[in-house]
Write a structure and sequence with these properties.
5-stranded mixed beta barrel, 25 strands, alpha/beta, 797 residues, disordered C terminus, elongated, 18% strand, 27 helices
Length: 797
């Protein structure tokens, strides 16, 4: 049943009222008061029948339906504010606007009467039962038992559905949808779906609330128990006479672990140990072991890294200021920084768990600056520097650490170096890596394989920590004197950079700019008190020291300054003082190294060779002689503490000359009847290697031909039975040694030509270098011209 009426509109902002609801309205709102006043004015003289349209206004727009409301009472609220109580009785559909008394908005509305109360279908009864069950369950969860009784007492489907107007979990849009739906069964179906969804949400929220509550309860219980445990431990310490002290803060490892910046895996392992520590008795020694392990873990800089200095020009300036020469290693460091800078500019970080560290091996004789170069590299890069001395280390646990099962266990030297550096990307100098030993306790070089392998060291595991430590951002610099003493697998993991020594000019620069100022400060002199001119420094480097490095040079300078200090204290000299080349005899004595090649090679049978030792390049002499026929001696005698390879070189040289004597115009016919003696002086020094092959051949050829070897010529190279000159190593060190010894002409194997690129230009300019491929060329260049008259060859004497 429907009818049309003209009624005032009472707008409801973002709210919906359904039939059956009783709602109070404050009359402080202008639109509400206008609607109430207009309704009461239109209903006079019986204002108890005043009606308004309770029209939803959602998002500023009026809905097309409304609830017909009867104003039951107008009065004041307990606070004194005027208000009206309105009961919604029916649904209405709003039509066109109209006119009426007052300032209210009047519209025509079609009023829908109550639904027919005929017999209900089984579907409607089922909907009523299901909805009542859901609402009852919802109200019981909230404890609204009185409302439960009211809902269960409603039997009319339409009235039951309209009680949803009080439901706080329904939105205004959902309630409007109920107001627009006239069929009660349809409203109940909508409500069933919405209520089930709300109950499901409530169940999830309740589960979350219980989990949170349980977690809070557990934390509270744990907190109380720990406080009680601390109180008990404090009492025990006081009873045992140890006192409370401030050790409690140190013992709170759990708080320290939680506050530390640790990777997740490390934090989990540390918390596990903290749990063990808390369960461990105070009298158990295991507690001390756990504390030591936790202290070690907390002291490591797991997530701390220093920022690299990407100023390439500035880094090169630092390297050049600290060390003269050594361009190869400087270039390599600059390349490393340039690549790091490009990666940073491109936003490239960790790739496959690995960072962009590097492993360099600095190989060279003592005193060339390998160790000090590490500090200079760290300063140029803006990184921390730490040195790990490996000379004489024989235990594999020194590198990897000891298992925690051993008493006194500690981490290995690598972990200790990272802890000392305070960052995860320091410069670590592995000093004297060629002097590692091995015995029944293990091989330290095998343990270094993982440390120095860029493909593995991002997951390095120390035996003591048993945690993965990322070493892939560390710049490792290994130093060595003898490359051959480094195992091949370890050497394969490092980029080899050779530091073969300094030229005389470089030594003068180093002495002037570095050694002299340092020793002057040690002796307590001001900069102007004592000076040593360059001629004196050059004479010290050439005639008093003659070494690959500069240690003896520095000791000589220190000796000069000490003598100067003593003489100044005795009043024998006045400051300031300048030391010249002519004054060195009074400070250092007579020169210790003078050119001796001319003297040694004046007789036939002596040749000058070049060799490489652990102290750098050196000059050696090979002497040959023949036994007299009457002695009856035959065969070959080799002296000078020669190794097997060097002895074989002598046999090859002799065999070559015997087989090719006629072609070389050498009288070798009677060699079988006369003994050959080959001696290499400095007999106390072991010698080995094939590079003296052409030197021995030249010495024997000189002996047989009676032609002395040129005093200004030195040579190196392996010889074959066919007379070929084969390549050897250490060319740069050998040429530096020849230059220091005053040699002017050097014979090298032809296949060693590319090695000349590594030799300083000043040395190449000072030497005449001949590349030879056959012994004939060697003899033509090395031997003095044949005599036109004079003594006959020694073989016929």
């Amino acid at each position: 049943m429907t009818e049309t009426r003209v009624l005032p509109v009472l707008p409801l902002d973002d709210a919906v009222v359904l039939p059956g609801m009783v709602v109070p309205f404050a009359l402080s709102n202008v639109e509400t008061r206008a609607a109430v006043d207009a309704a009461r004015a239109a209903a006079k003289p019986d204002s108890s029948n005043a009606e308004v349209l309770l029209t939803p206004r959602l998002d500023g727009r009026y809905a097309g339906v409304a609830a017909l409301g009867v104003i039951e009472q107008v009065g004041r609220l307990p606070g004194g504010e005027p208000a009206a109580v309105v009961r919604a009785v029916a649904r209405a559909r709003i039509g066109t606007g109209s006119t009426g008394p007052g300032a209210a908005l009047w519209v025509e509305a079609t009023i829908h009467g109550p639904e027919s109360t005929g017999p209900r279908t089984g579907r409607v009864n089922e909907l009523v039962r299901e909805y009542k069950a859901l609402v009852t369950s919802l109200l019981q969860q909230r404890g609204a038992w009185q409302v439960v009784d009211s809902v269960t007492g409603i039997d009319d489907p339409s009235t039951l559905a309209d009680t949803a107007g009080y439901a706080p979990y329904l939105s205004a849009a959902q309630k409007l949808e109920l107001l627009e739906t006239a069929d009660a069964a349809a409203r109940l179906e909508k409500l069933l779906g919405w209520t089930r969804e709300h109950l499901a949400e409530l169940e999830v929220a309740e589960t979350i609330r219980k989990d949170v509550q349980e977690g809070m309860d557990r934390q509270q219980r744990e907190f109380l128990l720990r406080r009680q445990l601390e109180a008990v431990r404090k009492e025990l310490r006081e009873l045992s006479g140890q006192g409370g002290g401030d050790g409690e803060a140190e013992d709170d490892y759990r708080a320290r672990v939680e506050a530390a910046d640790l990777p997740e895996k490390v934090r989990a392992a540390a918390m596990k140990e903290v749990d063990r520590l808390e369960r461990t008795s105070e009298a158990s020694p295991e507690g001390g072991w756990i504390r030591t392990w936790l202290d070690t873990v907390l002291e490591l800089p797991w997530n701390r890294r220093s920022e690299d200095n990407y100023d390439i020009a500035g880094a090169r300036a630092v390297l050049d200021a600290d060390h003269a020469g050594l361009d190869d290693v400087k270039d390599r460091i600059i390349e490393f920084l340039a690549v790091r800078r490009r990666r940073a500019d491109a936003g490239l970080g960790v790739v496959g768990g690995r960072r962009s560290g590097a492993v360099l091996a600095l190989a060279g004789p003592p005193g060339v600056g390998k160790t000090s170069l590490g500090e200079s590299v760290a300063r140029a890069m803006g990184r921390s520097f730490v040195r790990v001395a490996l000379g004489g280390v024989r235990d594999e646990a020194e590198i990897r650490g000891h298992r925690r099962t051993y008493v006194g266990a500690m981490p290995g030297r690598i972990v200790r170096a990272i802890r000392e550096a305070g960052t995860m990307n320091p410069v670590v100098l592995l000093d004297e890596v060629d002097k590692l030993g091995s015995d029944y306790r293990g091989d330290p070089t095998a343990a270094l394989l993982e440390v120095l392998d860029p493909a593995q060291n991002h997951t390095f595991r120390d035996h003591y920590l048993e945690l993965e430590l990322d070493l892939s951002d560390v710049l490792f610099l290994a130093t060595a004197n003898v490359v051959e003493a480094i195992p091949a697998p370890l050497l394969d993991r490092m980029e080899l950079v050779r530091l073969d020594g300094y030229t005389e000019d470089e030594k003068v620069v180093i002495a002037r700019d570095h050694l002299l100022p340092r020793q002057r400060a040690v002796a307590g002199f001001a900069e102007t008190d004592v000076t040593i001119d360059e001629d004196a420094l050059r004479m010290i480097a050439g005639d008093y020291t003659r070494e690959a490095g500069v240690r003896d040079l520095e000791r000589s300078i220190a000796r000069i300054l000490r003598k100067t200090a003593a003489r100044a204290a005795a009043g024998e000299c006045a400051l300031p003082l300048s030391v010249g080349a002519g004054d060195l005899n009074s400070y250092l004595g007579r020169p210790k190294h003078t050119p001796e090649s001319a003297e040694r090679t004046a007789l036939p049978g002596v040749a000058t060779g070049l060799a490489v030792t652990g102290a750098g390049g050196d000059v050696l002499f090979v002497e040959a002689s023949l036994a007299d026929r009457e002695t009856g001696a035959d065969g070959v005698t080799l002296t000078g503490q020669l190794g097997d390879v060097m002895k074989e070189s002598a046999q090859i040289a002799l065999s070559y000359l015997r087989s090719r004597g006629a072609q070389l115009e050498l009288p070798v016919g009677d060699l079988a009847d006369r003994g050959v003696h080959i001696h290499v002086p400095a007999g106390a020094v072991p010698k080995d290697g094939p590079s003296a092959g052409i030197t021995m051949t030249t010495a024997l050829a000189s002996l047989l031909s009676g032609r002395p070897v040129r005093a200004d010529v030195a040579m190196t190279g392996e010889v074959s039975l066919t007379g070929r000159v084969l390549p050897v190593g250490g060319i740069k060190q050998k040429l530096l040694a020849a230059h220091r010894a005053g040699i002017t002409t050097v014979l090298l194997p032809h296949r060693n030509g590319p090695d000349l690129d590594d030799v300083p230009q000043a040395v190449r300019d000072a030497l005449t270098i001949h590349l030879v491929s056959d012994v004939r060329e060697v003899l033509e260049l090395a031997l003095e011209p044949a005599f036109t008259s004079g003594p006959a060859p020694l073989v016929s004497a």
